[in-house]
Amino acid sequence: RPWPRRLRRRWECKGLAPSAGGCAEVWTGAALEPLRAASAASPAPRELRGVSERIEQELERRAAQAAYERYACEWREWWDARRAERAEGLRVRLHTPARRRRERAAANLRDLQAQDSAAAAEDQRRSEARAWASAQGRATEAARRRAEGEAREARAAAAIARARELELERVEEELLRQDRLAQRRAGAVATLAEERLRRSEAQRARSVETEARLQSLQLRDEEERREREAAWDAGMARAGRVEERRSRAVQDMARVRRDTACKADMLREVADRALASNRTESLRRVLEAIAGGAPSSPGGPPRPPRPASAGGRRPSSSGTTLRPALRAALRDGAARPEVPPPSPLTWLEHGEKPLSLSASTELPSTCCAASVMETTGSVSSER
């Protein structure tokens, strides 16, 4: 069967042609291979390369169209031969209808041929129009590219000129800055020299003032040293006198301690003897011995009579004898000859302030009396 008209036209627009086997084949253009090799060996500008490519495409399309036309002619011949064979067979069977069918087939064939020629002419016209439009577009594109290149060159020249102007301005500014910097450096050097001169003068004045102050300090230190030496000599003299007083005070304290120890031993012996005899009588004698008024021996003067109390009862011996005896002992201690008090150096040597002479003398007696009272147990109320 013949190929469908729409499919054939579609292939023709694409530059293809239906083959005898019923598939699409592309015209390879083997005759154009030398032209391609020559164009590849001698490269041309971009515009010329584009023109050569379009020329090659057009030649390929025309070769494909010629191949299709040859195929169409061959196919028509084959189809005419087959149709003639069939018509002959039909003429034998049907004379009149066969003639009519042949006439209709011839008319259809003429119509198809007219349509094919019209389509080929239209394709030719369209391809020429496309080629002309592409040539015009290429010319316009080349003109536009030339204009863009000229504009780029103009902009580059303007940029180079502007860069040169900026470079000149920068060089001028750098020269001016260096001049100002040199002037500032010269002024700074002069100011620094003046400042150094002023500092050296001030340093010299300070050194003179410091030297004078040093001399005055040395004189004052010499005077203070002499005063300290004089005060040291006077202090050493006073220390010698203080040492003498301290040695005398130490001797007096040793003598007082010895007397106190002797008196304590004596009172201890008297207390022991009193405990051995009558307790009450021995206690009275011990208290009298403490007071220093009554004799401690049994043969002494008789004691005075005790007054009776208001209630008819005799007061206890502790209430009438102990306190007056202690008062007499204190008066007796106050009447003893005076001994010079110890010096402050003695206090520092012993680590604490010693008791006074009268207290040191009377303390062991009081302690002894208290021990006797605690031993006898007859003066619990006084405790």
Automatic annotation (TrEMBL):
<feature type="compositionally biased region" description="Pro residues">
    <location>
        <begin position="298"/>
        <end position="307"/>
    </location>
</feature>
<feature type="compositionally biased region" description="Low complexity">
    <location>
        <begin position="308"/>
        <end position="328"/>
    </location>
</feature>
<feature type="compositionally biased region" description="Low complexity">
    <location>
        <begin position="111"/>
        <end position="121"/>
    </location>
</feature>
<feature type="region of interest" description="Disordered">
    <location>
        <begin position="290"/>
        <end position="363"/>
    </location>
</feature>
<protein>
    <submittedName>
        <fullName>Uncharacterized protein</fullName>
    </submittedName>
</protein>
<feature type="region of interest" description="Disordered">
    <location>
        <begin position="111"/>
        <end position="148"/>
    </location>
</feature>
